[in-house]
Write a structure and sequence with these properties.
This protein is an alpha/beta fold. It is built from 17 helices and 7 strands. The chain has a single domain, classed as Alpha-Beta Barrel (TIM Barrel), CATH 3.20.20.210. Helix 11 packs parallel to helix 12. The protein is globular. It starts with 5 loop residues before the first helix and ends with a helix.
Length: 373
């Protein structure tokens, strides 16, 4: 069976054409010379978007603004726009791909990413996940492990729906886009997997009670991250977002240094693709350590500081992604979002986009405004 029926493909290209023409009209109406000047359609809707995005997360940008994120861009209005809704978009590869591709075709971003939840790996391991609704994100359910010795990774992990569905969706996106935009996968690090599998409080108490037991848990979960990462790359992902929720309210600077700096450094060494690390919250006290891991790009939260401040903290080697506050996306105006995007681009943020997975009630107009639409 064809991945895209001819009618679908024709309709999609008509949408791209309409968006491109609208973008051209907008660019003619905004002629002020600025680093955030709107790009012509020939730049946005071409294979250059993929190349530009991958160059940007490698800190090899050409000066053109690059837009995107490695976290979820799904909101209720975007679901209405595409006809792909939660929870089906977590569970069906066609609907997952339909919703993800809107990051490019509707929002004008240079990358698409189809894993909208934090639950895929843990669902495949055995958690009883509640996949939510169109207005509720999934939840991983009750912890299933108490100690490192309890950890059992199913031999068919990658064939279980939690992993299989996004792997199939990545393949669909790769074929549909044919290089027009980058396809980003997403994996969770062992620190975050442990939150779900052991419970946040239990796991964090363990980091205080027994550092050796914590290291054993991380060691036993690390193969899940690596296996899912490799499978996504084999399925067609151009790059990966590594999400590890090691914000300062859950992980002290000392804990990051002792537990996660070595883990993240190992992931950089062993994953043969561009890697973007995402950590929520204020990370000003650990950006220097993140840079030491060799991570190519860091997706930062605006709680860390202004774009200029974060650029200074990160130094010149590591690329940065983000700059747009989720609170302003939810509560602000399109004009405010455009101003935030311009400030981020001007300050040297390599990929301008939301700071994290966006709220489900985010207005679509605000999402479109990130890329100047």
């Amino acid at each position: 069976m064809e991945i895209i029926q001819p009618a679908y493909l024709a309709a999609w290209h008509r949408r791209v054409s309409v968006l491109a023409e609208a973008r051209l009209r907008l660019s003619c109406a905004h002629t002020a010379p600025t680093p955030y000047a709107l790009r012509p359609p020939s730049v946005i809707f071409s294979a250059m978007s993929q190349k530009r995005f991958l160059n940007a997360i490698g800190r090899k940008g050409d000066g053109q603004p690059v837009f995107g994120t490695g976290t979820s861009i799904a909101c209720v209005e975007l679901m209405h726009e595409t006809g792909a809704y939660f929870p089906q978009a977590h569970l069906d590869p066609e609907q997952m791909a339909d919703l993800a591709i809107a990051g490019y075709s509707v929002l004008g971003m240079d990358v698409v990413m189809p894993l909208f939840s934090v639950c895929h790996e843990v669902a495949a391991i055995g958690c009883n996940v509640n996949w939510g609704t169109s207005e509720q994100m999934p939840e991983s359910g009750s912890p299933i492990f108490r100690s490192a010795e309890d950890i059992v990774i199913p031999p068919d992990l990658l064939h279980r729906p939690g992993c299989r569905v996004p792997l199939e969706a990545i393949g669909l996106l790769k074929k549909r886009l044919s290089g027009a935009a980058a396809v980003c996968g997403k994996v969770f690090g062992p620190w975050t997997l442990a939150y779900h599998l052991f419970g946040v409080e239990n796991f964090l108490m363990g980091t205080i009670d027994s550092s050796s037991a914590t290291r054993e848990i991380l060691s036993r979960l690390l193969p899940v991250t690596l296996a899912f990462a490799k499978a996504q790359l084999d399925a067609g992902a151009d790059c990966l977002l590594l999400a590890d929720h090691a914000t300062r309210d859950l992980c002290s600077p000392g804990a990051y240094r002792d537990f996660l700096l070595p883990v993240h450094s190992q992931l950089v060494r062993e994953i043969a693709a561009p890697l973007v690390l995402h950590i929520c919250g204020n990370t000003s006290d650990r950006i220097g350590m993140i840079e030491q891991t060799g991570m190519g790009c860091f997706h930062w939260d605006t709680k860390t500081g202004s774009p200029a401040e974060v650029r200074k903290l990160a130094g010149e080697r590591m690329a940065l992604m983000g700059g747009i506050s989720n609170y302003r996306l939810l509560q602000g105006t399109s004009q405010e979002i455009r101003a935030m995007a311009q400030a981020a681009a001007t300050a040297g943020i390599d990929v301008v986009g939301p700071e994290c997975a966006i709220p489900l009630k985010t207005p679509l107009a605000n999402l479109k405004a990130i890329a100047g639409k």
